[in-house]
């Protein structure tokens, strides 16, 4: 294609401001789909519908034709957990549509996304969406964009994606204001691997942005970071239906297939070059993504273990960024230790396992990756291990120092919720960095920045934030590295025996409160026995919280075993069935359900 007629752009927005609806409108207007196909739902982010249509699960990029221009609309994952994927998608574009809800104004993710876009030198076109709403205040939002973000919004496009207002203006603004890509068609091939996914018909499909040179069917290419070579067997684009093309040239975005079996062989950010005429150097910015949040996933019904394994394999076909390995727990039986890019990523996988694979699962407390510095003598080299599972914690005597990951969080909130938010952050060991007010009048909001240990955020922080602000605050974060922390492993003991699935790593200062909470819950969940059962939370040998389940009175059990023969037999049968799911702690049998309930409540 003629490079001067190409425009590559993405749409950035806070959740629910109308990104998908606008994308659908642009596709509809430029003829990619008919109104009838459209009414089946949102094209860019509805997995089930897309599967049915046999298009592709992740129609990540759509090519639009508009007045002789080739517009490549790149969809970016909407959440901070996928920050690296987002950054690669943005690196593949020259501009962005900034969609802001005319009634809501600028929110935390709007800003986080805009800053990233600015870092990639994008030309940003503000679009004030939902102007059809009675509560719309386009003028106020325009000012907000100028004041808070510092963008010139005098030429912001006013639109309603839902009612189809301002769509041609948006398309024209893309052509007029976003610059064409730069690149040299005759230089050696250099293409960025932006994303990849598994398609049941095509195998692994790779989304690429060609920087220089040309990609063609039959070409032998090399993945510079992975060091592998592949033969390209398809080249094309999505409109959003798949269309094969003779080539993709400098400046273009499209897909290739190369008989690759697993998504894990393709690394986002890798450089694809010609095997015979390679580029002198790979593209900058390659990064290998690592899971940062780990937890155990166990089937509630032990019989579902194999089904869970298969489901995890299937999900991994499309998401090489999460990891899993088998784990066995005395309390919960067999399951998997899984690693995720963040809490939301965890929730997405959990949700898909439940909804798409119909699994009933129990999740252990999420844990971050700790760096354990082990003690060593002078002539030994320093030894640092990464800990993903509290169960693997080394003997405290062998630990010299523990480091934990920290994040910088930005929260936007109406003023009235500021007090409780500051308290929440403070309780979670937060360090306040900044507090300002943005916007004016009804749109005024406080913007607070905190440094927080990630460990404190994975533990119900979102839920608390949501409930204390009734959903009015928005939250965004990025990692800022590891710092030393006064961290301990807290064990929960039932009848003097530790319950592995309930142990956790926590800050010394919050251990007692968390330990007490868990003991109280277990006290209500564990059935009474003939004797007293102590439930304790302990750090090393030191008990920091304790509850006691009182003993049953003798005559109560006596009554159970009385009665007629059939009733007695039924009771025994029931007990036998129950036995399989009982876990023994000392001489205490505890139904697995008690642990599950304790974790669910936590
Ligand atoms: P995520 O996919 O969750 O990130 O949200 P999104 O930004 O893609 O927003 P989406 O397009 O799903 O729109 C969110 C809601 O706003 C939906 O209920 C849309 O129907 C509605 N919506 C989108 N555009 C408009 C608009 O112009 N006017 C009105 N009234 N509603 C709109």
UniProtKB/TrEMBL annotation:
First-listed, main subcellular location of the protein, grouped into a coarse class: membrane
Signal peptide: none
Single GO molecular function: translation elongation factor activity
Function of the protein: Required for accurate and efficient protein synthesis under certain stress conditions. May act as a fidelity factor of the translation reaction, by catalyzing a one-codon backward translocation of tRNAs on improperly translocated ribosomes. Back-translocation proceeds from a post-translocation (POST) complex to a pre-translocation (PRE) complex, thus giving elongation factor G a second chance to translocate the tRNAs correctly. Binds to ribosomes in a GTP-dependent manner.
Subcellular location as annotated: Cell membrane
Family membership: Belongs to the TRAFAC class translation factor GTPase superfamily. Classic translation factor GTPase family. LepA subfamily.
Keywords: Cell membrane, Elongation factor, GTP-binding, Hydrolase, Membrane, Nucleotide-binding, Protein biosynthesis
Protein name in UniProt: Elongation factor 4
Recorded name of the encoding gene: lepA
Residue span(s) of domain Tr-type G: 4-182
SUPFAM superfamilies documented for this protein: EF-G C-terminal domain-like, P-loop containing nucleoside triphosphate hydrolases, Translation proteins
Coiled coil: none
Catalytic function, reaction form: GTP + H2O = GDP + phosphate + H(+)
EC class: hydrolase
Annotated residues for binding of GTP: 16-21, 129-132
One protein family per Pfam: GTP_EFTU_D2
Topology in the lipid bilayer: Peripheral membrane protein
EC number: 3.6.5.n1
């Amino acid at each position: 294609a003629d490079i001067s007629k190409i425009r590559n752009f993405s749409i950035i927005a806070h959740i629910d401001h109308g990104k998908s609806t606008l994308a659908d409108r642009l596709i509809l207007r430029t003829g990619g789909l008919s109104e009838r196909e459209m009414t089946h739902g949102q094209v860019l982010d509805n997995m089930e519908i897309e599967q049915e249509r046999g298009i592709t699960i992740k129609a990540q990029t759509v090519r639009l034709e508009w007045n002789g221009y080739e517009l490549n609309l790149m969809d970016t994952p909407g959440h901070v957990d996928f920050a690296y994927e987002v950054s690669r998608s943005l690196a593949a574009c020259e501009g962005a549509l900034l969609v802001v809800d005319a009634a809501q104004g600028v929110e935390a993710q709007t800003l986080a996304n805009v800053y990233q876009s600015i870092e990639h030198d994008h030309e940003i076109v503000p679009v004030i969406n939902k102007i059809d709403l009675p509560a719309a205040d386009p003028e106020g939002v325009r000012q907000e964009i100028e004041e808070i973000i510092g963008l010139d919004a005098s030429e912001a496009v006013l639109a309603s994606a839902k009612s189809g207002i301002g769509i041609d203006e948006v398309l024209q603004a893309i052509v007029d204001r976003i610059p064409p890509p730069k690149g040299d068609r005759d230089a050696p091939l250099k293409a960025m691997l932006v994303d990849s996914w598994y398609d049941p018909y095509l195998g692994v499909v790779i989304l690429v942005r060609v920087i220089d040179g040309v990609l063609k069917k039959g070409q032998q290419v090399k993945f510079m970071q992975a060091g592998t070579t592949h033969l390209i067997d398809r080249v094309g684009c999505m409109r959003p239906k798949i269309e094969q093309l003779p080539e993709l040239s400098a400046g273009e975005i499209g897909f290739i297939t190369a008989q690759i079996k697993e998504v894990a062989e393709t690394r986002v950010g890798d450089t694809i070059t010609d095997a015979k005429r390679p580029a002198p150097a790979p593209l900058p910015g390659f990064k290998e993504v690592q899971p940062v949040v780990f937890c155990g996933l166990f089937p509630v019904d032990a019989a579902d273990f194999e089904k869970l394994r298969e489901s995890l394999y299937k999900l991994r076909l499309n998401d090489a960024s999460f990891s899993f390995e088998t784990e066995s727990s005395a309390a919960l039986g067999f399951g998997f230790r899984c690693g995720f890019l963040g809490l939301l990523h965890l929730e997405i996988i959990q949700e898909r396992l439940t909804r798409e694979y119909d699994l009933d699962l129990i999740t252990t407390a999420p844990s971050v990756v700790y760096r354990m510095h082990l003690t060593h003598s002078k002539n030994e080299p320093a030894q640092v291990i990464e800990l993903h599972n509290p169960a693997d914690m080394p003997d405290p005597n062998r630990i010299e120092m523990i480091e934990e990951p920290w994040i910088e969080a930005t929260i936007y909130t109406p003023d009235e919720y500021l007090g409780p938010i500051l308290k929440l952050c403070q309780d979670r060991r937060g360090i306040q960095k900044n507090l300002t007010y943005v916007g004016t009048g009804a749109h005024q909001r406080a913007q607070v920045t905190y440094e927080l240990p990630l460990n404190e955020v994975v533990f119900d922080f979102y839920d608390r934030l949501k409930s204390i602000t009734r959903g009015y605050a928005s939250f965004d974060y990025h990692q800022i590295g590891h710092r030393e922390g006064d961290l301990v492993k807290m064990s929960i003991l039932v009848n003097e025996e530790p319950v592995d699935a309930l142990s956790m790593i926590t800050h010394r200062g919050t251990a007692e409160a968390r330990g007490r909470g868990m003991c109280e819950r277990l006290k209500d969940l564990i059935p009474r026995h003939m004797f007293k059962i102590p439930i304790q939370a302990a750090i090393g040998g030191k008990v920091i919280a304790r509850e006691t389940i009182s003993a049953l009175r003798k005559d109560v059990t006596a009554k159970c075993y009385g009665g007629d023969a059939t009733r007695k037999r039924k009771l025994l049968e029931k007990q036998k069935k129950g036995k399989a799911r009982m876990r023994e702690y000392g001489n205490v049998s505890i139904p697995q359900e008690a642990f599950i309930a304790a974790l669910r409540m936590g």
